[in-house]
Amino acid sequence: MNMDDEPWMAESVTCELCSEIYETDPRDPILLPCGHTFCRSCITKVKEADETACPSCSLDFNDIDVEDLPVNFQILSLSVTYTKSQQDRCVTHGDELKYWCRDCEASLCSLCLYTDHPQGHHVLLAKTFLEKKKLSLKEETLSFNNSLKEMMNEVNSNFKKCFQKMKILSQLQADVVGLITDLQKACSIKPILLLEEKLKGLQNKGLGPLSHDGTEILGAVGGAAPVCDGAAEVIQAGATLDQRVTKPGSVKNGDRGRARLDCRDGRLVVHSLTHRADHRLFLQMPSEVFLELSVGSRCLGRVYIKLWSHLRRAQQFLALCLGSMGPSHIGASFKKISDKNKERETIWCTEYYSRSGEMGYRALMLDMEWEGEYSKIPEEGLVVGYSNDINDYGFGICTKGKPGANFSGPFGEVSLGMEVVHAAVRYEPVTEVTITDCGLVIPDMTL
């Protein structure tokens, strides 16, 4: 049997908790009373943490000691076979590469070591070197991960400062515009002097450093945000995601929905979508979501979908990605593949789940778009609606186009991750492919 042709092999011989391959003590595959298997080390840790239930099905095994649990010798034998199949062999002698030379930085078999290899070199057992290297790499990876966490915390802190700065700038803009109006109405010296003092106060308000390293959003009002032509210029913020505002198939490049930001009464608000070009602060509205697909404990990857968010089907899909209406995509599995290996091949999901675990298949919103002007020719990556006499919720992702045909209710398209969709289509049975996570993609913000 060719192990490389059996993708399920690695998953079968790997502990779901620690992702390590089973091997004789301390990672013996231990069989729990419920029939699930985990390595001895992980089950021991579960016991030490006073958790006495199976990590998979939650069946209690409190009255049984770990040492009394049987070894799953069938899995252990499979693990040994798999491990041997993964070992490299010497291209010269055909033997297993059991040794590693530190000086040559090369793998050696027994014949290499005792015939052609220079004497006096530092040679280790390949298994010993591998374990040390994995431990060292794990420590480096954990250290790097800790550094990333620190950087993320710092970025999060600066983001909060940016958010507060946005509120201050937006409020300042309103104050400056009001000052300009008062200046135009002033007819005597006293109001002019009062407005001069007010301007000085505005110039000094909220324009300090953004972060501890001295980075500033604006310098002085007179430099970065001059008062001229009856308007106050304020920084603009943009993002990279399109907001679909026209019918599918008629979207033009650069046609993006923007929402104006404004601060009044101490609150930062987002106005309705607009295309007006002025000097106010704007935010590109997000329209991209993601689905994480998995088979058992193995993650296939993430699929990113750009929604045509002017459509109600897209709004319903977004609500199910966020769980904002109660149920969500999480836990749902794909049910079928239509036209498999043919034109218009599509993988379908026809269910969702509530927080209590109840399955649903009815639409959450009324007046869903269907047929007519909403139809579109099947293309790879097109996300389409599903409807029959019973189910009017489901969605599908097209994997192969078909000229001359049409889908009745498309509402988005895959922007990244089609290889994950194709992997799901190839998996047998497709009903084991589930959505294990989903959510909204936050757009990049540029100043």
TrEMBL record:
It comes from the Eukaryota. It holds the Pfam family zf-RING_UBOX. InterPro entries: TRIM/RBCC, Znf-RING_euk, Znf_B-box, Znf_RING, Znf_RING_CS. GO terms for molecular function: zinc ion binding. Residues 85-126 form the B box-type domain. Keywords: Metal-binding, Zinc, Zinc-finger. Residues 15-58 form the RING-type domain. CDD domains: Bbox2. This is Tripartite motif-containing protein 72-like 1. The gene is Trim72-L1.
